[in-house]
Amino acid sequence: MSDRTENAKRVLAAQTIELPSWAFGNSGTRFKVFAQHGVPRDPFEKLADAAQVNQYTGAAGSVALHIPWDKVDDYEALAAHAADLGIRIGTINSNTFQDDDYMLGSVCHPDPAVRRKATAHLLECVDIMDATGSTDLKLWFADGTNYPGQDSIADRQDRLAEVLAEVYARLGDHQRLLLEYKLFEPSFYTMDVPDWGTAYAHCLKLGPKAQVVIDTGHHAPGTNIEFIVAMLLREGKLGGFDFNSRFYADDDLMVGSADPFQLFRIMHELALRGVVGPDSGIAYMLDQCHNIEPKIPGQIRSVMNVQEATAKALLVDTVALSAAQAAGDVLGANAVLMDAYNTDVRSLLAELRGEQGLDADPMAAYAASGYAEKIKADRQGGQAAGWGA
Ligand code: LRH
Ligand code: MN
After folding, report:
1. 37 CA distance to ligand 1 middle (Å)
2. What are phi and psi of 320, to 5 degrees?
3. CA distance 157 to 204
């Protein structure tokens, strides 16, 4: 087996993808949320479902929480429950986009009292991080305007900067904030953090504990996301990813399902710099909604899609690539990359799973486990989890 394949297996064996707790609850669009049977009713059951994904993939050891969707009385108890399941609680996501007071914004709202309320929620999320042992606070703001003139674009940036500075000052030494940008929705004229440049500018001002999150569904169609990856990596400001894929807007479909080549190109930029692993300081997270497909298999398939894109990226003949690039051999260089992308890595991953004591086919193994039928039978009554929108 080539050194490159050996190295790829070593890196893949350590790869971990953080799962979004909300992917296990009911979700949908403004047209309809199709409830599914067996959906968790509380964060404890969400963690149990997430642990299934880790059990069959061996690569999903942590779960991101969303507050208040995952609000509990005792976060230490929730963290202990995660540990009993062989996983841990990861990123804490704030939510300042579902309260009636936030119609005109939260941290950018014209009214200081509303900004105060939003800030209090963000600070509460840091308290929760202290309780769960989480290091990452992810901030995404739905804040923006719908019509020109509705508010001062510059004043809203001042308000945002002020709140971010207060939250930054509250962070512990081992904690950081991850600022997520989004081009549009739910605001349609301006979003106050619309693109990587705006997020980067705020994070630069804040300091080393502030980094940018790239949600792969948050760009204008045709955006070269791997360019943004390379730039933020170069600046030491790439904090993480919200992986998903889309055909049109923020579709939150399974990562790699709509554009596996784009995912490969992104993982290539990361593999080139050796920052695919858990000690890279980059949080690899999924941010998806399984509106019509079964949720646990959807998460298993998504983790496998990231593994496949990563494996292909790790098989790029970087020596030949650099030589072709240096020689200006355009077609040669492109061919090196396409050779890796066109490599079927499924047997390599199946072999690796075998060596990890896992079933070669996680989807089939989960289906055969009877867990899906069990949760459908057990989870009668109670309020199925969802976005609570
Ligand atoms: C916003 C977003 C953000 C989350 C939410 C669940 O579109 O990507 O990351 O808080 O989805
Ligand atoms: Mn996201």
Report:
1. 24
2. -65, -35
3. 14
Residues 203-225 pLDDT 10s: 999 999 999 999 999 999 999 99
242: Cβ below 6 Å to ligand 1?
A: yes
Cβ partners under 8 Å of residue 97, min gap 6: 106, 140, 141, 142, 186
The residue type at 260: P
Predicted confidence (pLDDT) per residue in 28-37, tens digit: 999 999 999 9
User: Cβ(215) to ligand 1 under 6 A?
Assistant: yes
User: How far is the C-alpha of 160 from the C-alpha of 181, rounded, in Å?
Assistant: 13
φ/ψ (deg, to 5) at 210: -120, 125
Distance 180 CA to ligand 2 centre (A): 7
Q: What is the pTM of this model?
A: 0.98
Cis ω before 68 (30° cut-off from 0)? yes
Atom of ligand 1 nearest to the CA of 97: 10
Mean predicted confidence (pLDDT) in 329-333 = 98
Q: For residues 218-244, give the mean pLDDT.
A: 98
Using a 6 Å cutoff on CB, does residue 143 contact ligand 1?
no
Looking at residue 81, what is its pLDDT?
Answer: 98
